[in-house]
Amino acid sequence: MATDGPPPPKGDSDPSMPAQPTTAQFVEVHESAEFGELRRTYRSFAFPLTVAFIAWYLLYVLLSNYAGGFMGTKLFGNINVAFVFGLGQFVTTFLIAWFYAKFASQKLDPKGAAIKSRMEADL
Known about the structure:
Blueprint: H1 23-30, H2 33-66, H3 68-71, E1 74-76, E2 79-80, H4 81-121
Antiparallel strand pairs: 1-2
């Protein structure tokens, strides 16, 4: 994995490259309360939404396998319950992606930018 090694050395190897934080600086930031809060904020959003979507998907799969009569119920024309559930999978996927982008730009990005700017200021 490319991130397993130490960061590139500081010095005059390439003056066009910005200075890189040391391993100790990364560890310090990783153990900080601010970074812990960023991870908690992300996890409090991502984990429940992931569990909810997987449950919704499994409901669709289980109903498709074991409740064929229900899923085959015609709603109007040639549109049945299974078709509506299938389209619902696409709709919820896009809604979750949109909701995450909005959440990240409002809650995660400012915290991440603050941590990044503080690290860059220490160099």
